């Protein structure tokens, strides 16, 4: 396998066409190549040889774990035992509960910087990168529906949290336990739910989950420590189901744009105001303009 999964073009755009076609075997082989020669994939030394402190496992340990979990068919870490893998982004420690968490961390520390030309945009760089991540989550785990946002994914096809009768009790118990743990991480970071009764089954906007369900856990833990200028925050969430499914090996901009979703009212929209009362979430997380650029209809809720 000589081709790179991700290539930055001279104009600053991202080409994910190669990696988008890979099956689980090819993806595992690629991850093992990263472990063998991480520096050649842009991994900084602090992730190769981290200081001897808690929360500082290296890229090799992360690859070993994700490969083992993938081969064993494990999507959700068993949470009634101590997780023996801790990962840091810069000097901020993040929770590791699922195979998606590890994959997201690996993708975040490899080739994570766009060219200095300033020509990389949400449309030509970050949207294809997120679509590739969504597809790889499905390929590595065979979970049919991934919400990014939600690195948890759903423990059953097209899970509706309002109807848990269709979900195996063990899967649902793990899912709910992860959500509770992520709520605790956010609380420890000085953030809080809208009220003490809010839980992961409370609905906000159509299709949105409650506080602590999604990957906002990771961003807001980081934000609470680093205090990023809201003007420098650009992001969006994506639902990967039939639009970019495991059998669909071709990235298309239209399908990616159709998969975008706005931040949930009870999660990101609620949390940004705790970081900065003047922070308008639409300036950082609005997807309406991006959908319009790609010729996809948007709604007022998209921002």
Helix content: 25-40%
Please tell me what the overall shape is: globular
Side-by-side strand order of the widest sheet: 5-6-7
Distance between the termini: 41 Å
Which structural class do the helices and strands define?
Answer: mainly alpha
Query: How many helical stretches?
Result: 11
Radius of gyration: 18 Å
The run of helices and strands is EEHHHEEHHEHHEHEHHH
Strand content: 5-15%
Number of strands: 7
- Mean pLDDT across the residues is 75
Describe the biggest sheet?
Answer: 3 strands, antiparallel
Which ranges are low-confidence, i.e. pLDDT below 50, for 5 or more consecutive residues?
Answer: 78-82, 149-167, 200-208, 242-246
3D architecture notes:
The protein is mostly helical. Helix content is 39%, strand content 6%. The chain has a 3-stranded antiparallel beta sheet with strand order 5-6-7. Strands 1-2 form a two-stranded antiparallel sheet. Strand 3 and strand 4 form a beta hairpin. Helix 1 runs antiparallel to helix 3 and helix 7 packs parallel to helix 9. It is globular. It starts with 6 loop residues before the first strand and ends in a 10-residue tail after the last helix. About 13% of the residues have low confidence.
């Amino acid at each position: 396998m000589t081709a790179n999964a991700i290539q930055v073009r001279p104009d600053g755009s991202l080409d994910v066409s190669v990696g988008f076609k890979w099956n689980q075997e090819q993806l595992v082989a690629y991850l093992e190549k990263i472990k063998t020669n991480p520096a050649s994939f842009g991994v900084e030394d602090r992730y190769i040889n981290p200081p001897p402190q808690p929360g500082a496992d290296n890229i090799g340990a992360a690859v070993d774990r994700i490969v083992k979990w993938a081969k064993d068919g494990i999507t959700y870490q068993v949470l009634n035992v101590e997780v023996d893998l801790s990962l840091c982004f810069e000097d901020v420690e993040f929770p590791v509960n699922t195979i998606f968490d590890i994959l997201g961390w690996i993708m975040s520390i490899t080739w994570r910087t766009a060219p200095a030309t300033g020509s990389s945009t949400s449309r030509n760089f970050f949207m294809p990168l997120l679509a590739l991540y969504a597809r790889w989550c499905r390929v590595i785990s065979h979970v049919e529906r991934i919400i990014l946002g939600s690195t948890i994914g759903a423990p059953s096809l097209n899970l509706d949290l309002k109807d848990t009768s269709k979900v195996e009790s063990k899967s649902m118990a793990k899912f709910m336990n992860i959500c509770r743990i992520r709520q605790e991480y956010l609380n420890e970071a000085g953030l809080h739910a809208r009220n003490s009764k809010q839980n992961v089954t409370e609905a906000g906007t159509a299709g949105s989950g409650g506080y602590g369900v999604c990957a906002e856990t990771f961003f807001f833990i980081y934000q609470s420590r680093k205090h990023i200028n809201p003007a420098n925050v650009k992001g969006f969430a994506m639902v990967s189901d039939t639009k970019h499914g495991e059998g669909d090996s071709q990235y298309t901009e239209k399908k990616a744009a159709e998969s975008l979703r706005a931040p949930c009212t009870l999660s990101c929209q609620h949390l940004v105001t705790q970081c900065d009362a003047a922070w308008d979430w639409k300036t950082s997380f609005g997807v309406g303009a991006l959908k319009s650029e790609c010729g996809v209809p948007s709604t007022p809720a998209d921002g």
